Amino acid sequence: MSTTSKITREIYSRMQAGDRQAFDRFFSRHAARILVYIQYNMGRRLLRKLDPADILQNLYLHIYKDFKSFSERADRLGIQMALIRMADQEISEAYRYHFKVEKRDAKREATAAFLAAEETGRADPLDGLPKESTSVTAQVVRQEEYQRILRLLKDLSPLERYVTVARVIEGVSAQEIAERLGKTRGAVHMIFARARDKLRSRAGSGRVKSGKL
């Protein structure tokens, strides 16, 4: 599988056979960034109801129960994008359950929350870190990659964080982010460039570009 080059064939065959340990190894490789994405896209109302780690745990269980569907999606989209799409579905289902709505534009709510935080200085979703959950999600909350991403993002303003997560983790184009925020594409490029400079300064070395932090 070209999109899963970093995952050995052995792990995949073990996952297909239902090996839970192989699932844990696979999930821990990718889940830290997905957990950050979940935090940023739940919106304030849902964050008051659920811990982001609960969404992550449900996502993991769905992959475990139906790995075939996930692997087919990962082949089409790539592993990270497949996980993001599944996270979006989990967030939407949580909205339907808790707020009794048929459809919910979670990204619109998240965007509004970040704009409000930018304008008023109120706390954003990163200020409410997930509590340790059970099973593999507890390992993700504790792992160094997750904590490293949080430390880097803490130096950014809410708007810079929003743009960075959308560009780097979600892989959204500058044009789409501009449409979400009601800004020009040039303004989004400037926001991301400013955020990237801050991240580079904090990291001390290395490049921050689409797909990497």
Keywords:
213 residues, mainly alpha, 0% strand, globular, disordered N terminus
Q: If you had to describe this structure to a student in words, what would you say it looks like?
A:
The chain is an all-alpha fold. It is 72% helix and 0% strand. The chain has helices at residues 9-16, 20-41, 43-47, 52-65, 67-77, 79-99, 106-120, 135-142, 144-153, 158-169, 174-181, 185-203. 34% of the residues are buried.
- Chain-averaged pLDDT: 78
- Cα distance spanning the termini: 25 Å
Shape type: globular
User: What is the percentage of strand-forming residues?
Assistant: under 5%
Protein topology:
Blueprint: H1 9-16, H2 20-41, H3 43-47, H4 52-65, H5 67-77, H6 79-99, H7 106-120, H8 135-142, H9 144-153, H10 158-169, H11 174-181, H12 185-203
Helix pairs in contact: 1-2, 2-4, 2-6, 2-8, 2-9, 2-10, 4-5, 4-6, 4-8, 5-6, 10-12, 11-12
